[in-house]
Amino acid sequence: MVATAKSLSAESASSQPAATAHLDTFARDNLPPREQWPEMIFTRPELQYPARINCVAHFLDRWVAQGRGDAPCIVSPTVSYSYRELQALVNRIANVLVNDLGLVTGGRVLLRSANNPMMVATYLAVLKAGGVVVATMPLLRAKELVYPIRKAKISIALCDGKLRDEMEKARAQTDELKQVLYWGADGADSLDALIAKASPEFAAVDTAADDVCLIAFTSGTTGDPKGTMHVHRDMLAVCDSFAGNILRATPEDRFISSAPLAFTFGFGGVLFPMHIGASFVVLEKVAPDDLLDAIERYEASVCFTAPTAYRAMLANYAKHDMSSLRKCVSAGETLPKGTYEAWLKATGIRIIDGIGATEMLHIFISAREDDIRPGATGKPVPGYEAKIVDDDGRDLPPGEMGRLAVRGPTGCRYLADERQRKFVQNGWNLTGDTYIMDADGYFWYQARSDDMIISAGYNIAGPDVEAALLTHDAVAECGVVGAPDEARGMIVKAYVVLRPGVAGDAALVSALQDHVKREIAPYKYPRAIVFLDQLPKTQTGKLKRFTLRQMAMAGDAAPQSAPTVEVLQPSGWPMPKGYANGMAAEGRLIVTGGVIGWDASNRLADGFLAQVRQVLENIVAILAAGGAKPEHLMRLTWYVVDIDEYLDNLKGLGAIYRETIGAHYPAMALVQVVRLVEKAARVEIEATAVVPK
Question: Residue 526 in contact with residue 469, Cβ under 8 Å?
Answer without folding.
Answer: yes
